[in-house]
Amino acid sequence: MPVPTSHHAVHRIGIEAPAGRVYALIRDAAEWPRRFTPTVHVERAALDARGERLRIWATANGEVKHWTSRRTLDPEGLNIRFRQEVCSPPVAAMSGTWALRERPGASCELTLSHTFAVVDDRPEDVRWTTTATDRNSRTELANIKALAERPASGAQPLFSFEDSELVRAPAEAVYAFLAEARKWPARLPHVSRLDLAEPSDGVQVMTMATRAKDGSEHTTESVRVCFPEERRIVYKQVRTPPLMVLHTGEWSVRDTGNGLLVTSRHTVGINEAAVPAVLGADATVADARARVRAAVGGNSAATLALAKGFAEAPHAA
Question: CA spacing 20 to 30 A to 59: which of 66, 137, 274, 313?
Fold first, then answer.
């Protein structure tokens, strides 16, 4: 069989921050969903002191893709090499390097290079992959620059919280309630509409209209990754309400030996610029956090209570 043609892409950006700080942002892949706009979820497994394997779910040209990469870490040389072990079509092979070069004045240059091939060398797939690589690379470099250059006092106001419910029922019934989002409008009073697509096994893309206590509605779009064997669902909102710039979360079902602990976890970034318009001229970030905690936590708590009722009902046994 003919060897697919290799294609190359190189993207660079200057960053007014020390190279070590930038390297640490790239190194900590578990945080990418909260740092890189395209990244939905990362599962990390350490292989040795210099190697790791990443399972990555991310958006590319508006589609959700999943691949597995092996990374080789070189903190002394300030570079990280990667190679996809399992690709997502139309990509047939993908490798590259994150490389940092120190510059005077505690600044640096970051270069992200890619070498890739596509299945059967189809021109339309070359164009698709080139566009996706260019778009995501530019977005990721801009995200890194903004994070690295942000002063410590200007850190993005992220905060995390969780709600739990103890359920005495089969884990399969609880997980099914959480995974069967298509049925939520009939099961959850605060969900007025939900459109669900499942582009690949275990991946759900959902657009959901949520009704607030005051009768108002807001629409969000999320990508969910389901792990039925682990009774776990992770997600990232790719379209958030005005008061948020970030919302990632996880539903988990854990056997405690005395029932199931069903937990909803959230990490939220507040959109500071929107606080006055949404909450009033005198409102603060603390007020926004309290509003988000009450609204998001309230919906989670209601979902958990309804999941408990559903799973513990005789019909679910």
Answer: 274
In 156-292 the beta strands, taken as DSSP E runs, fall at: 158-167, 191-200, 203-211, 217-227, 232-239, 244-255, 260-270
126 Cβ contact partners less than 8 Å away, ≥ 6 residues apart:
5, 7, 118
Residue 33, token pair as written in the block: 């969903």
Tell me how far apart the alpha carbons of residues 295 and 60 are, in angstroms, rounded to a whole number: 31
> pLDDT tens for residues 23-72?
999 999 999 999 999 999 999 998 888 999 999 999 999 999 999 999 99
Q: Judge whether residue 214 has pLDDT over 90.
A: no
Instruction: Tell me how far apart the alpha carbons of residues 283 and 258 are, in angstroms, rounded to a whole number.
Output: 43
DSSP state of 230: G
Angle, helix 19-27 to helix 123-149, in steps of 10 degrees: 130
Q: What angle do CA 106, 107, 110 make, to 5 degrees?
A: 145
Instruction: Write down the mean pLDDT value for the chain.
Output: 94
Q: With a cut of 70, say whether residue 317 has pLDDT above it.
A: no
Task: Name the residue range of residue 228's domain.
Answer: 158-316
Whether residue 152 is predicted with pLDDT greater than 90 in this model: the reply is no
Residue 52 forms beta bridges with which residues? 46, 71
Whether 101 and 62 share a structural domain: yes
CATH of the domain at 91: 3.30.530.20
What is the Cα–Cα distance from 8 to 127, expressed in whole angstroms?
12
Alpha-carbon distances, residue 64 vs 44, 45, 201, 217 (angstroms): 19, 22, 11, 26
SS3 150: coil
**The one-letter amino acid at 103:** R
Q: How far apart are CA 132 and CA 121, in angstroms?
A: 16
Question: What angle in degrees, to the nearest 10, is found between the helix axes of 171-179 and 285-312?
Answer: 130
Does residue 128 belong to any structural domain of this protein?
A: yes
